[in-house]
Amino acid sequence: MSKQTLGAECKICTRPFTVFRWQPGSGARFKKTEVCQTCAKSRNVCQTCLLDLQFGLPTQVRDTALGIKTKAPTSEINREFYAQNIEAAIENGIEGGQGANGAINFGKADPAGKEMLKKLARNDPYYNRNRPNVCPVYAKGACSRGDECPYRHEMPQENVRRLSKQNIKDASANGRSDSTARRLLSSAASSGLAPPADEAITSLYLTSVPASHNTSDALTAYLTPHLGSAAIRGIVPVPATSCAFVNFKTRADAEEVATKLAMLNIAPASAKQVKISLGEQEVGVQWGRSKKPKADAAKPVAVAAPASDAVAL
C-alpha cells in the first residue's frame, strides 16, 4: 500500500486529502481512495467504491428508500464551512440529519424503507469488483501487449459503457444520475402498482389507514419524504371507512410517488396493490378508479304522430 499526503482533491468537497493506493490481490486492479474521510463519514459511504457502508448499495438507492435529501453546498465558498461543521459534528458524536451539521440521520428513517434495502443488499462477498478494468485498446482491436497487458482483454458490456460515462460526484456521492441505482430502483418498483391505462387518473387510494394518521396533515407529513419533484393537489381523508384519496397535480407526479411507494412494499408482489407501513399498521396503496361519465340529462325527443287509418271524406 502506498500513501500520498494531500495527493489529490476530494471528488465531493474538492479539498486535498491523503490518498491511499493498494492492490487487493495478485492480478487484481489497483484501488485508491476517491473522497476524503469527512465526506465519507457524512455520507456513510466507502472512500473507494462510494457504496453505503450499512447496505452496500448506491447512495441514490439508499436516499430514495429512506427519504434522505442531500443538502451539500455547490459553491466553493461554502464547502469549507460545510466540511468544518461536519467534522465538528462527528467529533462531538452527534447523530446527524442533513440539517445544520450536514450529517445523515438513519435512526428516524422509515422502517419499510430499511426492509426494502435489506432485500436489495448484497450479503455475499463480491470479488468481481477487484478484477482489472477492460482494456480500451483491445476493444478497438489494437492492443499488442498480449498476456503482459494488465487490463482484461474482453469486449465491454453495455453496463460497463454506462458506468464509464458517469461522474463520481453526481452518480455516487450526491446520489444522482446513477445507472446502477436506476436499475435497482426499477427492479424494486416493478413489484406492484402498474399504472392504469386511463391517463386521466391522477390519484392514489389508501385503505386500512389508522385513525391516528387519517388526517390531511398526518398523510402529508408521511408522503413528503417520498414526493421528490411531485406535487399534491389535495388529500381527502375518509375516517368513516378508514381510507383516503391522494390527488396529484399531474399524472407524472402520481406515477413518481407510486413508484417510490412500491419500493416500500412489505407484502407479496401484486400489480394492483402494495402494502406500506404507517403507524405500525399495514396500509394498502392502489391507483384510483376512472370517473364514470355523467349521464346526459333527458332531452325531449320528437316523436312522429302515428298515421291515422281514417280517410277524410
Architecture overview:
By secondary structure, the chain is α+β, with helices and mostly antiparallel strands. The chain has 2 domains: 2-186, no CATH class; 192-287, Alpha-Beta Plaits (2-Layer Sandwich), CATH 3.30.70. It is 28% helix and 15% strand. The protein has helices at 37-43, 59-66, 76-91, 111-120, 136-139, 158-164, 168-173, 179-189, 216-223, 251-262; strands spanning 2-9, 16-22, 31-32, 203-207, 232-238, 243-248, 273-277, 282-287. The strands form 2 sheets. Strands 5-6-4-8-7 form a 5-stranded antiparallel beta sheet. Strands 1-2-3 form a 3-stranded antiparallel beta sheet, with no helix packed on it. α2 runs antiparallel to α4. The radius of gyration is 28 Å and the shape is elongated. Residues 95-103 and 301-313 have low confidence and may be disordered.
What layout of secondary structure does this protein have?
Layout: E1 2-9, E2 16-22, E3 31-32, H1 37-43, H2 59-66, H3 76-91, H4 111-120, H5 136-139, H6 158-164, H7 168-173, H8 179-189, E4 203-207, H9 216-223, E5 232-238, E6 243-248, H10 251-262, E7 273-277, E8 282-287
Antiparallel strand pairs: 1-2, 2-3, 4-6, 4-8, 5-6, 7-8
Helix pairs in contact: 1-3, 2-4
